[in-house]
Amino acid sequence: MIGLPDFPWDRLTPLKQLAASHPDGIVDLSVGTPVDPVPAVVRQALADASDSPGYPLTYGTERLRSAAAGWLRRRHGVEVDQANVLPLIGSKEFVAWLPTFLGVGQGQRVVFPELAYPTYDVGARLAGAEPYATDGLLALGPERVPLVWVNSPSNPTGKVLPADHLRKVVSWARERGAVVASDECYIELGWEEQPVSILHPDVCGGSHEGLLAVHSLSKRSNLAGYRAGFVAGDPALVRRLLEIRKHAGMIMPGPVQAAMAVALDDDEHAEEQRARYAARRAALRPALEAAGWKIEHSTAGLYLWASNGAGCWDQVRALAEKGILVAPGDFYGEAGGLHVRIAVTADDERIGAAVRRLQ
Ligand SMILES: Cc1ncc(COP(=O)(O)O)c(C=O)c1O
């Protein structure tokens, strides 16, 4: 069997129980799962497509791919032909399997940020490759690596990588024949800074060669339960990935394809959702600061990356004693040992409760 690390969230269970013992109930700001309704237009589209007896295409419908390409153009200034879009069953499966699909293996390193979503590491291990967490590509010297992940806005830090930084990553990777996969699942949630896609001409110079942008509808449209995402970019890579996914049966259900196309076409619900998160963030951030936490990065995305100077597990405990559950920074890498990640994903009532408890 492939050896993988213990599932980190299991380690939080005792502190979740502590937070849940608060007389007014737990405020769970740990996992970052959406809590607001699935937009009505999307639910209607799912229902309308529910008579779906036949096999859907792994490639998805042209309607879906065109909606994805249209959204990238309209919202992010990215020109992608619909032929170079591939639906994903949520973006997590793709993060976990991309190294395997690319044929990365033993003796090769998959590079991802020092503080990162744990699935980049898992994906390297599933492929039998070596996970390598670093923010400094120069540390690799002349080594050729097959795959570099970037994630802007970042989970967990909410840091945004500016276009000139991404441009350097792209040129470094192109010199070495590395694929750059950019996890852009929080790209619609820019606050003090606006994230830019790896496929934007200011970053890639107009060519998508060697580049893949990974997107998710989980946070933009509250579709975490539908499992809806897509990857777009280098035509040759997308074609190869499609062939493998066809063989492996990685097919997005037809009704979800229909619902996702409608979600991508509609910006109104996404703006409403953004406003909800903005309000929760505006309430929570000063309350944490007044209670002694310093917020770092966090200029975009769904999380506040915070520290009061203590070890991360002591901080998690201090907040759990107030009935507030957050994630320890070391879930995301050793460099997170003095931080906690606080998701702004609770409803307004629960965020209000957290603010009162922090006073
Ligand atoms: C950085 C990052 N990538 C990918 C995902 C996976 O999202 P999904 O599988 O719901 O599209 C998440 C989920 O939180 C994430 O934080």
From TrEMBL:
Its EC number is 2.6.1.-. InterPro entries: Aminotransferase_I/II_large, LL-DAP_aminotransferase, NHTrfase_class1_PyrdxlP-BS, OxyQ, PyrdxlP-dep_Trfase, PyrdxlP-dep_Trfase_major, PyrdxlP-dep_Trfase_small. Residues 26-358 form the Aminotransferase class I/classII large domain. Belongs to the class-I pyridoxal-phosphate-dependent aminotransferase family. This is Aminotransferase. One of its GO terms (molecular function) is transaminase activity. Keywords: Aminotransferase, Transferase. Its cofactor is pyridoxal 5'-phosphate. SUPFAM superfamilies: PLP-dependent transferases.
